[in-house]
Amino acid sequence: MKHGRRQLVVVRHAKSAYPSGVPDVGRPLAERGIADAPRVGARLHALVGAVDVAVVSPAQRTRETWALLAEQLDPVPDVRIDERIYRDWGAGLLEVVRDLPGSAATALVLGHEPGVSELVLRLADHGARELRDRIDLKFPTCAVAVLGVAGAWADVRPGAASLEAFLTPKD
To answer: Kind and range of the H or E element at 83?
Structure first.
């Protein structure tokens, strides 16, 4: 793909459960998360169309969220599990974006708070103030931010993206 306009979709995992004795990385989705993820997946597909690649945290709740979202996407994109999404925030997640394949026009990153909101706020320009304020307040479970990005993924810099949409399961 030529380095034209791209879309970065940033998703927080759906609502998770807190079973006793289960380590954080192994926490599954709660009933609400299981219900929210497919609805958000259908809305996401209507909003952005095809997703070329998804990069997902290795945590159980993110992999379960991905499975439910992916059922609503057509075609189902390639998926990569990336440890950095679980352990890193801020600059670490920016590196995940910079490592996206150059052929991907639309990419999805599925992770955790506060990393997902930090990534969106780091990348978003100041032109989308209303949405930026909304994210500053809360990036709830199963929320989705869609960013427009010009140029190659490898060249993405803070402030260089436009925040095009932000949706939550309750919207």
So the answer is: helix 83-87
